[in-house]
């Protein structure tokens, strides 16, 4: 819930689905946490909960019990940031709901691999939430793709192999 994360937009979108069987859980902290908590309380949003930073085993349990995970990235950061938590979510086989510009590096990964959804506006996010409530099969399909994407592109073995290849390539000097 840092400066680069437009979590206020996520909260506003959730306000629109407040009475539906959908819940958002924020785990951890950040500079915006207290202001977001106050906003939720003031506006009477009931389907958002907060937990402090979780020990790894508890975090794994939370993650495995989630249907999907939201990753946000503020405007202007599309090519400068790649939220690392995304790879944790993919490794757990969780589809990603990306709230960011469709030209962001992460958005392109999600679109190309069909391992989640990319939304750019609160309205798109609300429509997605409403769609997913009745489409568990789609969530399950994207979850399988998420795990496959992680295994084929971002697992430790794959990344280490790419790193070693890059390090061991001979340097060609320009003359």
Q: What gross morphology would you assign?
A: globular
User: Given the helix and strand composition, which structural class is it?
Assistant: mainly alpha
Strand order of the largest sheet: 3-4-5
Q: Termini distance? A: 48 Å
Radius of gyration: 18 Å
> What is the succession of H and E elements?
HEHEHEHEHEHHH
Mind telling me which CATH architecture this is?
3-Layer(aba) Sandwich
What is the count of β-strands? 5
Our count of helices gives 8
CATH superfamily: Glycogen Phosphorylase B
3D structure, described in words:
By secondary structure, the chain is mainly α. The protein has a single domain (7-168), classed as 3-Layer(aba) Sandwich (Rossmann fold). It contains eight helices and five strands; from the N terminus they run αβαβαβαβαβααα. The protein has helices at 7-16, 33-43, 56-64, 85-91, 105-113, 122-133, 136-154, 156-168; strands at 24-27, 48-51, 69-72, 96-99, 116-119. The strands form two sheets. A three-stranded parallel beta sheet has the order 3-4-5, with helices on both faces. It has a two-stranded parallel sheet with strand order 1-2. α5 (105-113) links the parallel β4 and β5 (116-119). α1 (7-16) packs across α6 (122-133), α4 crosses α7 (136-154) and α7 runs parallel beside α8 (156-168). The longest helix is centred in the last third of the chain and has 19 residues, at 136-154. The N and C termini lie far apart (48 Å).
């Amino acid at each position: 819930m840092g400066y680069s994360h437009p979590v206020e937009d996520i909260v506003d979108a959730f306000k629109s689905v407040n009475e539906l069987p959908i819940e958002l859980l924020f785990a951890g902290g950040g500079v915006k946490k207290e202001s977001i908590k106050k906003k939720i309380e003031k506006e009477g949003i009931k389907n958002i909960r907060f937990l402090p930073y979780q020990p790894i085993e508890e975090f794994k349990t939370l993650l495995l019990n989630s249907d999907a995970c939201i990753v946000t990235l503020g405007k202007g950061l599309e090519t400068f940031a790649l939220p690392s938590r995304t790879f944790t979510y993919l490794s757990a086989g969780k589809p990603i709901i990306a709230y960011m510009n469709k030209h962001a590096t992460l958005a392109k990964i999600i679109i190309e691999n069909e391992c989640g959804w990319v939304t750019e506006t609160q309205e798109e996010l609300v429509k997605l939430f409403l769609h997913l409530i009745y489409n568990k099969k789609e969530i399950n399909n994207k979850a399988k793709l998420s795990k496959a994407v992680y295994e084929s592109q971002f697992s430790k073995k794959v990344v280490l192999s790419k790193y070693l290849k890059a390090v061991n390539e001979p340097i060609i000097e320009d003359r």
